[in-house]
Amino acid sequence: DPASLEPDPVWEEEWQKNLLDAAIERVKQQVAPKQFQIFDLSVLRELPVAEVTSLLKVNAAQVYLARYRVGALVKKEAKRLEAQAEKAGVKA
Questions:
Q1: In angstroms, how far is CA 57 from the centroid of its own chain?
Q2: Could you give the angle at which helices 60-87 and 9-28 cross, rounded to 10 degrees?
Q3: Half-sphere exposure of 14 (CA within 13 A, CB side)
Q4: pLDDT of the chain along its 92 residues, tens only?
């Protein structure tokens, strides 16, 4: 059955979530705690920039910079983990 070769959408969504969670945890260990805290509040928890600046006593430029830098590292790590999994035959 050709349909059985298609990944289950629920499984695929769970796979991507786990991959992203693993990438975030690895990046968390690589960046300064303050940088990750800004990223966490701004991106992961989706707080407005003004609220993040007020809570953490940083300026908007610091928030945007942390979002960009940490976000780029997360994307890079997620791609690396996905390639590693494919190489190991975990996901085709």
A1: 24
A2: 120
A3: 5
A4: 565 666 678 888 998 999 999 999 999 999 999 999 999 999 999 999 999 999 999 999 999 999 999 999 999 999 999 999 888 877 64
Pinpoint the alpha helices (H) of the chain. 9-28, 33-39, 49-56, 60-87
Residue type, 44: L
In the structure encoding, which two tokens stand for residue 36, read together?
Answer: 């990750």
**pLDDT given at position 88:** 86
- Residue 87 token pair: 């190489």
3-class SS of residue 42: helix
CA 92 – CA 87 distance, rounded (Å): 9
Residues in the chain: 92
